[in-house]
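Please, structure for the following, as tokens.
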Amino acid sequence: MSMAAIAPRLVFGFRGDVGDNVAYSDDGSVVYPAGHNVVLYSADTKTQRIIPGTLESEGITAICVSSNKKLLAVAERAEKAMITVYDLQTLKRRKVLIAADAGSKEYVSMCFSSDGKMLLAQGGGPEYNLVLWVWEKSKVAAVAKTTNQQGSPIYTCAFSPGDGTMVSIIGQGIFKMFKLVDGSLKLLNIALGKRDPASVVSQYWVPSDPSENKERLLLGTIDGEIIMMEGTDARSVFNTDNGLAAASIVCYSKGFVVGQDNGVVTIFEKDEKEFYRKARSFTIENNPSRVRYLAVSPNEEHLICSLENNQMYSLLLSNSEIMKADEMNFDVLGTNNHQGPITGMDICIRKPLIATVSTDKSVRLWNYVDRTCELTKFFADEIYSVAIHPNGLQILVGFADKLRLMTVLMEELKSIKELGIKGCRECCFSTGGEYFAAVNGTTISIYNTYTCENVGNLRGHNGKVRSLFWSPDDSRIISAGMDGAVYEWRLKDFKREKENVLKGCNYSSVLATPDCKTLYAAGSDKKIKEFEEAPGAGTQITKEIDAGTNLTQVGLMPNAKVMFAATESGALRTYKFPLTGEFQEIKSHHSSITRLRMTWDEQLLVTASDDGCIFVYDVKDKDAKAAARRDQERMDWAVEVLVTRSELDEKKSRMSELEQQVAELTMQTEYQLRLKDLHLQERVKELTDKFTAELEADRQKFELLLQEKNEQEMEYEEKLKLAEERSQVQLSTLDTQYQAKIMAEVERFQQLTQEKELLNERWDEQNSLLVESHERVIAELTEDYEAKLAEESLKIEQLQQEKAELEREFEEIKRQLEEDADREIEELKEKYESKLATERESSLRLKGENGIMRKKFNALQKDIEAQKEEIKNLFEQKRELYATIASLEKDIASLKREIRERDETIGDKERRIYDLKKKNQELEKFKFVLDYKIKELKKQIEPREQEISDMKEQIKEMDGELERYHKTNSGLDLLISNLKLKQEGLQQEVMTQRTGKSDAEQLLKRMQHDLQAIIPYFQEPKDLKEQVKALYHKYCGNQPLRTEEDADLEREAARQREYLEKTVDTLKRKLAKDSELHRTDNLRIMQENTALIKEINELRREIRTLKSRVAGINGAVNLSVTGRRPGSPGDSLMLSEGLKRELEMQRDLITRLREETAAKEARIRQLESMIAPRPTSRERLPPMEGFPGSMPPERISSSLLMKGESRPPSAAIDLPPGIMEQEAVA
């Protein structure tokens, strides 16, 4: 059987994520991407020409149109990034460019050179290479890496239109310029002044002017500034005054246009003083999105704006001067597209309408005959599904909270019924429109369309239902779900007629043949399954076709000749039917196809996708006779629309008011016309009389003037005769005079000729004499120079050290003298030759003065033009110099300002240093005071011993209280566990009660169903009796349910549950209160321990001070004892009685200090043993400052020996170990 062919007919949609996604062709068509295609849209005829993408690629990433509007380059993502070049006139493919130099799977931006022979392409991640193609030869001319060390992404690239060797790129925090030199791209140094290159977000090269040899580049920044660069230097800056990012720029003959955030478009026009000035701004109302790309038509009448939310708008650029900024001046180009993935779609039978819903929370109705979007309405809730009635007057929409049935009015959707189905993702009307089905999780609900009555529910799926299909006669409905089940339901009794369950397979779409004998389903196992009823075995899978990819939707032509299948990659397949596995594939969408529908006349196929695009295909049946028969049998489309009575009454009242106004205006106009006619008649009469009188007066005046004219003619004829006679006499006289003058001039010319010959002879003689004198002078000079040369050579031989320098001087003098001599000769020669030429010119001037003057005039004209051109160039240079001076002055001012700011900063730093020095001095004084206070406080340690003992008692009491709290907590934990066990028991009992209730309800439903089955036997008593007996034995064989006891048990269980819940709440509150008290006590204990440790620290410091004092006293004693020299006379007499007493006092003092030290050390050890340990649940405090812990005696002795300290043996023995340890650490 022949397979039908499909071809794209039209597309509703636009991809805003493609680079440079809007442009114009040479015939005025707009070029933009949609799905996996490039569309050429004519705004005048609303027709589309579609260029399909490559089937093997993953999607279009960027497009580019050449400057002559004849070539189109399309970049596509693939295993190796590829670029396809098309001819826009024939839409034929010219070249396919594939190279590994891109270092990526895609190109993010492209640009043709001005002559269209080279193509610049910016590769994507991870390498971000810039590739320059000679595309006609499929040759890579140069490659450069454009990203930074961090691998920041690059967004756009651009070619200079004038100099075909300069390119620029922009990325995330990156702006670079390159120049093509010797087959490689060389990075240029850019001077942006104080502006950060990271702020640049857009660029556009200004078309070069033949009169100006300057390359200008416009850069848009994130702050709304436009930087104009000449070459690599910033020349000027323009501001949009709104602070919005300049996301896109495009130039035209009068200036340039900037696209910004929030849908703002700003127009700049050329200015003689400041290059450009801001002219006006316009805003796209109700669409605050970023304007990503701009395009100007070839005749510069229209401006196209592409937004990042998949919308395109058109602005009449030629009338922008008269537009008001506060009005909506933009028109939607084509249709208003979806801004997100399409989640639901349906097609109408009686009207050419397609209904779609999307994640942008909108419902849209598309007319595929008029190629328009007839209705758009946004809602506040998310929308998941949609279905349209066959007559096109009602629509079913599944929202997140409800399912709404709406009426399609002329310009509005009016909700007429809301059903409590949340998150309905599948709904559809029956073939005749009498019923509609809606999915509620795992249940399918069937409703009457006209009464919205729930006529039945289909239960049986264990997973979510993903697809529904009505039979042509509306007697059956087929469903498939994520549980791997395919069911065919009989709507007569809402029972399953066919079923097949394949666990592990999530079905996404299901359908049936027109006779419903064969079912087809596609799921997650990448196969198309065919189900048929097998006798005795139920519904079985009779055939499986491996698709190789996940299929999201399947569709079957009503005449069962071909099957369509949609894939998750956006491709559409046409399978030969009956299924053999043979198929044809085209790729129109960029993302997964979510919906697939076919018109009732089998001529159109419609698909919707996650990329927000809707494609309409022509289904071309190879059976021409069948197609012609369908065309003849097809009915005309319905043109009826619904209007509410209130709207109709409002329009009628409005029409009557307008008719009344028209009648009043007609009467007023007729009355004013009659008045004007009367006034004009009187005016015409007055003017007629006036002009008649003026005409009579003019006639008389004309006759008088005519008579005067005749008289003057006769008078002037006589005067003319007299003048002619006088002129003849004067002419003869002048002729005689000029003949005499000519003879005199001839004689004078002959005399001058003779004088010229004499002068020539005399000049020849003088020239010969000059030549002889010149030769003689040359000879004399030569002899002089030879003599000087000989002298110089002798001097050089005598003075070898000055040889080189004298030679250079000699050569220089010789050269200068020769030049002077030659210059003098040339000057004399030129002087005499000029005199000779002057004489010759004078003779020639006498022969033809007129011709010479003409030559001089021409020469002067040329000189004047040359001078004008030179003056113009000088003015241009002057203006450039002034601009350079101004920019340099700005830089100087900024540098001065920066220097001034740095001087102020240095001054602040110096003042800060001075203040810190003063503060340091004050702190030194404060330190001295604190040292004195510390000494005083050390004397007050003894009174605190009593406080420490009191604290010790308090800590013991707290330890006992803490143990009591632990016991209480353990008891509460045991009580909570018991309550949890009781709660679990109650929950199990509740579940048992619920199970019994559900069983009773099922039993009651079965009994009701069986009673309905007895109804046909009412006319047959015997059969009725048998059926009733069977029912009695079936349902009354067991004992009846004891509903009263069950009710008492439920009340008792509820009472006990309430009591237990209250008990648990009371225990929770008590536990929280005890925990808070416990935490407070622990915190208080911690604070007291910290205070005790600080006090111990202070005691240790005091001991260290006492130890140092003891060491000093011991040293003084030893020095006084050992200070005398041995063997000196009178050793026994040197010690006086006073010195002995002083030594005794010192020894007593040392003994007392040692005893005090030992007592305090013992007290410290006692206090350390009294301190209660901190709770283990807390973190350990860090070691106290100056007390890192115990140190072995070996380390103490070694440290003392390393320091070179020595002390008396008695001191080393008597001092406690703790004091020695602290000394070693210090």
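Residues 27 and 934 are 97 Å apart (CA to CA). The longest helix spans residues 645-798.
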